[in-house]
Amino acid sequence: MPRPAAKTPKRRPQPASQPASVDPMWLLKAIAATIGAAIICGYLALCLLFYQGQWQLVLHPARTAAAPASIDGAPFQIIHFGPDESAIPQLIGWWIPAAPQARYAGTTLLFLPPGDGSLADSIPTLSALHRLGINVFAFDYRGYGQSAHTHPTHQRMAHDADSAWLYLTASREVPQNQIIPYGAGAGASLAASLAAEHPSVPALILDSPHADLLDAVRRDPRSSLLPTSLLFHEDFPLAAPLKTLHTPKLLLTKSPGQLPAAYRTACNPKTAVSFTGSADASYADALTHFLDQYVPGARLVPAPTH
Question: What confidence category does residue 3 fall into, taking pLDDT thresholds of 50, 70 and 90?
Answer without folding.
Answer: low
